[in-house]
Amino acid sequence: MITLQNITLTFPDGEHRITAVNNVTIHGENGTVTGITGPSGSGKSSILAVAATLIRPDAGGILIGNGTDTIDAAQLSKKDATALRRERIGIVFQQSNLIPALTAREQLQIMGRLGGGTGRTKRAKIDARVNELLDAVGLSAHANKRPHQLSGGQRQRVSIARALIHEPEVLLVDEPTSALDQESGAEVMGLIARLTRERNTATLLVTHDLVHRNVFDDVITIVDGRVSEPAAV
Ligand SMILES: Nc1ncnc2c1ncn2[C@@H]1O[C@H](COP(=O)(O)OP(=O)(O)O)[C@@H](O)[C@H]1O
Ligand SMILES: [Mg+2]
To answer: If 0-12 CB within 10 Å is exposed, 13-18 middle and 19+ buried, where does residue 71 land?
Structure first.
């Protein structure tokens, strides 16, 4: 699970500071998708960047794990945060951020080898996992294609599979459908929901598009950096 506890984040803004995230608490259970929604500029991506340990908050905790195994990622050194991000957090951004020269399979292999050994057994293990994940996202037949040979939806599938390569407990997804048409958007959302249950990840998913709210187990609405009352349906 992941709990963002009373997170506040400010950015410098001329002589003052702008409060992008204002005392936000969000709880994500394993095997569930928690939607984070709200208008543009309300602080959604900032919240996700804090959860990903990419930006350190001014205040608040980022509790990751279960029971006595729980750590506060906000307290980690840069080095420990990097290791945590690699091993326990999967991240999917708006743009799929794939490396143009690499095939779908290679994008996953490279990520899989990060931080691990390069021995033969290790490699075989990673390759088996790569194949299993490509299959799980329905891309086995496209494993040898490079990003420009894939559709937007397929590229997002590669980046979802890549985010899962280290079997993370936490999956963070920012506007995964914003570059997709309605149909591939719905497929990508459905895929994230299914993988969240199958792999028991605590998934936080940012979207401004409530068309996809059916995949959420819970929805948090952010307005002006704060958690707001649920929108009337
Ligand atoms: N790196 C940054 N430096 C300064 N201000 C930022 C930075 N990132 C975001 N902001 C500001 O923080 C607020 C929230 O932005 P963001 O989290 O990107 O919102 P959302 O994802 O909901 O559109 C905005 O006012 C934005 O301009
Ligand atoms: Mg954003």
So the answer is: middle
* Pairwise CA distance, residues 58 & 180, whole Å: 34
Range of the domain at 83: 2-227
Stretch 113-140: mean pLDDT, rounded?
90
Residue 157 lies in a domain: yes
77-99 pLDDT, tens digit per residue, is 999 999 999 999 999 988 878 99
Number of domains the chain is built from: 1
**Nearest 10 degrees: CA dihedral of 150, 154, 157, 159?**
30
Domain CATH code at residue 133: 3.40.50.300
Distance 218 CA to ligand 2 centre (A): 19
Q: Which atom from ligand 1 is nearest to the alpha carbon of 12? A: 4
Residue 232 lies in a domain: no
Q: What is the pLDDT of residue 66?
A: 87
3-state class percentages of the chain: helix first, strand second, coil last, to nearest 5: 40, 25, 35
pLDDT in tens, 157-178: 999 999 999 999 999 999 999 8
Pocket probe mutation, ligand 1, options 16, 45, 46, max atoms within 8 Å of Cβ: 46
Q: If you measure from the C-alpha of residue 115 to the centroid of ligand 1, how many angstroms do you get, rounded to a whole number?
A: 31
Residue range 40-61, pLDDT digits in tens: 999 999 999 999 999 999 999 9
